[in-house]
Amino acid sequence: MANDTKSTGHIERTLETRHLSMIALGGTIGTGLFIASGSAISTAGPGGALVAYAVMGIMVYFLMTSLGEMATYMPLTGSFSAYATKFVDPALGFALGWNYWFNWAITIPVDVTTAGIVMNYWLPNVPGWVFSLVVMILIFVINYLSVRSYGETEFWLALIKVVTVIVFLVVGVAIIFGVMGGHQPVGLSNFHYKQAPFVGGVPAIISVFLVAGFSFQGTEMIGITAGEAATPEKSVAKAIHSTFWRILLFYILAIFVIACILPYTDKNLLNQDVSNITMSPFTIVFKRAGLAFAASVMNAVILTAVISAANSGLYASTRMLYSQAREGYAWKIFGYVNRRGIPIYALLGTMVVSLGAYATQFIGPQAYNYLIGASGLCGFIAWLGIAISHLRFRRAFLKQGHTLDELKYHATGFPFGPIFALLLCIVVMCGQNVDAFIKMDWQNILITYMSVPLFLILFLYYKIRYKTHLIPLKKVDLSKKTKGESYEAKED
Questions:
Q1: How far, in Å, are 71, 235, 450 from residue 94 at the CA level?
Q2: 8 Å CB contact between 175 and 181
Q3: Structure pTM?
Q4: What is the pLDDT of residues 121-147, one digit of tens each?
Q5: Are 41 and 257 in contact (CB under 8 A)?
Q6: Residue 290, Cα to own-chain centre: how many angstroms?
Q7: Integer CA distances (angstroms), 74 to 61, 87, 108, 268, in order
């Protein structure tokens, strides 16, 4: 390690606009779209699913523009955790940072486990853990080499998913108009089939918010990457706008196509299992068009999706641990940066925790389930932190005599945007598992909502120990440095 550790003490800014756009876009196009989108149509009907995804997409857009305003003014690697520390309360920054790091460190094992299941489609006799280990090594090497290697990998993996969705849309429209598949045009007949377009009313739409919310998680990663963007003032704003429209159009159009071709009563729409790829709505549509090897093609695409998710998860969690160290919330060694601009010890530390979490499924499946449950709502908690931080940032900015003209990028619809996002996130989190409360299933409640008390414990621990308070608006730190900005790692 000695010849690899001459540190500049700084993360390198080498990510381009195309990297940022694809990282945010690719982070949201995955199994949530390729497999779980069908369950949304089955639950709320075609109209209900479209409304839920559209509303959640608009909310995510507001959040991204909120993050974009802060990230273009103050591009920090820790992103919303560092912003919460500066603009709200150090206790909130501490809790958000560890919450987000934990979320991704625990999600990585889920993604690599899924990769093993996907590979078993072709090689059923090889143990899944072998493929999972290969993926673990692969994403570690990608993240170890350089931030540019991560950006390039994500660009091409995301491109595969984007091309797949575009081809799916073209094929789907052809089936709807009777051009492919050897059937009569289906048109919009399934939109008024039985109880369609809206099935189950408002409660069903709210339940689909959950599916849509999990599908869109990952967009906030654009704030993490801003700290390593070559020109964050320009690239972040551009990436946010292009990514929002692509995500919204891809999801809305894909769900529209699926809803046109398959009635909401189709049992295949309820499939959410990657091991049964033949029942994916995408696979069914491709098969209906008469395309051979549809299942194998979609299986390969889903493999790229889970590798991309694991790769992004390792990147995000590494940078968050690095930021926690720079802010003084973690051991100083995790703030070390090698000569290639990689926070190497933060990377190694995250890998160790992810491997440990992965190993729990062999020791005790129940322990593994609790770990996964503990990370369930972490993404929504991060979104809440972004909304709160932006509300405080804008108020402090004006209170200290600044004008909006000084900001290189303005969030859309302030203050409605962050307030709307704040309220919708609370509604989604509270409605995560209402049935468990009705049935008084305490174990299910614990698994579902475990991330909330864990976050509160972190927040209260720091607040009580260090006696922190809400920072007065006139004392909010609007400088563009973190507490540990001057730290430089030394030669091994």
A1: 19, 28, 18
A2: yes
A3: 0.89
A4: 999 999 999 999 999 999 999 999 988
A5: no
A6: 34
A7: 19, 12, 28, 47
